[in-house]
Specification:
This protein has a domain of about 45 residues. The two termini are about 15 Å apart. By secondary structure, it is mostly helical. The protein has four helices and no strands.
Length: about 60
């Protein structure tokens, strides 16, 4: 049901660009807040805490979602 609603909307270039921009902004904000608040300003501390696989998957999913 969600596909039937979202696919036609996102096929319009204007809405696709807005969705892409919003996804990039949210992913960047999430990444920034994670690094600043949890990993003490170090990406490598984040990787040590979570592991390579989790960090890669979570950053990838944050771009998709």
């Amino acid at each position: 049901m969600i596909k039937e609603i979202t696919i036609p909307i996102l096929k319009r270039k204007k809405y696709a660009l807005v969705a892409l921009a919003a996804a990039i902004i949210m992913a960047g904000l999430s990444y920034y807040l994670t690094i600043v608040n949890v990993a003490f300003h170090s990406f490598f501390v984040l990787i040590q805490m979570d592991g390579w696989a989790f960090t890669t998957v979570s950053l990838g999913l944050s771009l998709i979602i």
